[in-house]
Amino acid sequence: MNMDAFTIIPYILASLGIGGIVGAYGQYFFQHRKEIRSSEHDYKRQRYLCLMILMLTQLNPKVGLSKAKQFRSDLATIGDVQEEIKTEFFNCFIYANDDVRLYCSNCI
Predict the structure, then answer these.
(1) Grouped pLDDT means (10 residues each) for the chain, 108 residues
(2) Residues 6+ apart with CB under 8 A from 88
(3) At residue 72, what are phi and psi to the nearest 5 degrees?
(4) How much is the pLDDT for 5?
């Protein structure tokens, strides 16, 4: 009789809709987590693209600096670009994984 009670309990819970509520909560939780990771990935992508554009500007300041001034009026000289590259480089560590941080700490 005791074993029958354990087999009947899941059927009773499912018929009461508890399984649907738990499923909906689980789906919401995983969807919310996916959205957070997606926005984090977009932010990382934007930061790394910014760093690459700044490095290209440093390689060819004549062309890159004039284009950079269109979006960032504070980048007036190549020295400003170099300082911004340093800042962006350190900002990249915010979302870097532990292996990257460990490797870079050994190099610095």
Answers:
(1) 67 70 82 92 85 87 84 87 85 78 70
(2) 47, 50, 51, 54
(3) -135, 100
(4) 67
Closest CA to 84 of 95, 99, 100, 71: 71
Contact 92, 47 (CB under 8 A): yes
Q: Identity (one letter) of the amino acid at 103?
A: Y
Place of tokens 């911004």: 84
Q: Any idea where the domains of the chain sit in the sequence?
A: 2-107
Say how far apart CA 64 and CA 57 lie, in whole Å: 4
Query: How far, in Å, CA of 89 to CA of 71, rounded?
Result: 19
Q: 8 is written with which tokens?
A: 């009947």
Q: At which residue do the structure tokens 């001034």 appear? A: 69
Identify the residue whose tokens are 């074993």: 3
Amino acid at 94: I
Task: Tell whether pTM > 0.70.
Answer: no
Torsions phi, psi for 18 (to 5 deg): -65, -35
